[in-house]
Design brief:
alpha+beta; Glutaredoxin; five-stranded antiparallel beta sheet
Length: 369
């Protein structure tokens, strides 16, 4: 009798396990054997932010899961960036390039990947935009180091679209030899409540760390909401030992008539700073020289703005003079030159575009090709 009862219990348990694994609460089969297939209604789109590709995920038995009650269990991800599509499973872009997608459904993933090509961005934005990111920071700020690492972890595709400029600001009781005057002003002007505080193109800012997905979302919004109207080139950038100075020659060309000004900055990488005791930490993107028009066009003779005529290049030079302050060979070897184009944006200002290159080198206008 006990043996019969044991067999019955095992049979019931096995049946229950099969039922749990093979059916959903509504009786739909959630894991038929075979391949899940991701399909796009087009594989080439205009990089205008409006042309849309729509994805569908089909089960092994041919059911369109994206059109069923199972859609809530589907995630479609752009593999290069890790960004997930919204619940409408659509995608559009404002950059040229190849985008790769994969779908995930419960414990399964699509057998295939789908590539979508974004093209013809130059029809809608002539110059490739590089976003200026002012990072208000301090060497003693732990969350600042986390945020810096998160920026550095972004894909190469994104690294080409922004430049972090570490503007060190003084914090009570914290010794930071990288502090420059711009830090305190920007801290007040943008209502920062602590560090890190990040300012994107002078158009948006936030205090605290950011997840990689939040950074990508913010950068994407900057590219969509503020397309470039101009291009910037660094013609030359050199250090003169006799005068202890760095001279930068730059150019700017706009697709439309308008008022612009150029901001000049020097950034250094691999800078070591004492943290505790004899513990040193390495810092990158340290801004150690910056012209005073970093947050707006100034009405002073030393930094005149220029009214550009569409498609006509304006060139100028700027010299950072260090006087008796020695600039070490190590700093010079790790220096990058940044030139930023600032323009009016309503009642405020926005950094429209920028160019960055190592000291001693040059960079031409970057087009959306």
């Amino acid at each position: 009798m006990k043996r019969v009862l044991y067999v019955l219990i095992c049979a019931v348990t096995t049946a229950a396990m099969i039922s749990c694994e093979g059916t959903a609460g509504n009786g739909e089969n959630t894991n038929p054997t075979g391949a899940y297939t991701l399909v796009a209604d087009k594989t080439v789109i205009e990089a205008d932010g409006e042309d849309i590709v729509t994805f569908r995920l089909y089960s092994p038995d041919g059911e369109d899961l994206t059109a069923s009650s199972q859609r809530n269990y589907i995630t479609i991800e752009e593999i290069n960036t890790g960004v997930e599509l919204g619940s409408d499973f659509t995608f559009n872009t404002i950059t040229n390039g190849t985008f790769r997608f994969k779908a995930y459904y419960r414990n399964y993933e699509s057998e295939n990947e789908v590539e979508v090509q974004g093209q013809n961005r130059s029809k809608y934005e002539k110059y490739a935009k590089k976003i200026a990111v002012y990072d208000l920071t301090n060497v003693m700020c732990g969350p600042c180091a986390i945020l810096a690492s998160t920026f550095e972890s972004l894909s190469d595709d994104w690294q080409n679209r922004f430049c972090v400029m570490g503007i060190h600001t003084k914090m009570s009781g914290w010794d930071d030899s990288f502090v420059i005057d711009a830090g305190a002003y920007l801290f007040r002007e943008y209502g920062a409540t602590g560090t890190p505080h990040t300012i994107f193109s002078l158009a948006e800012s936030r205090t605290g760390t950011m997840a990689a997905s939040d950074i990508v979302e913010t950068l994407e919004a900057q590219l969509r909401n503020y397309p470039s109207t101009c291009g910037v080139a660094v013609k030359s950038a050199s250090y003169d030992d006799a005068s202890n100075s760095i001279t930068i020659s730059a150019g700017i060309t706009s697709v439309t008539d308008g008022e612009y000004d150029l901001i000049y900055a020097l950034l250094s990488d691999n800078r070591e700073h004492l943290i505790y005791g004899d513990d040193y930490q390495t810092f990158n993107d340290v801004v150690y020289a910056l012209t005073p028009n970093y947050s707006g066009i100034l009405d002073i003779p030393e930094y005149p703005s220029v009214t550009l005529v569409a498609d006509q290049e304006h060139t100028e030079t700027h010299t950072f003079e260090f006087g008796s302050t020695a600039v070490s060979d190590d700093v010079l070897e790790n220096t990058r030159v940044a030139v930023l184009a600032i323009r009016p944006n309503g009642d405020d200002y926005i950094i429209d575009n920028m160019a960055v290159c190592p000291l001693g080198e040059s960079i031409d206008y970057v087009l959306n090709e």
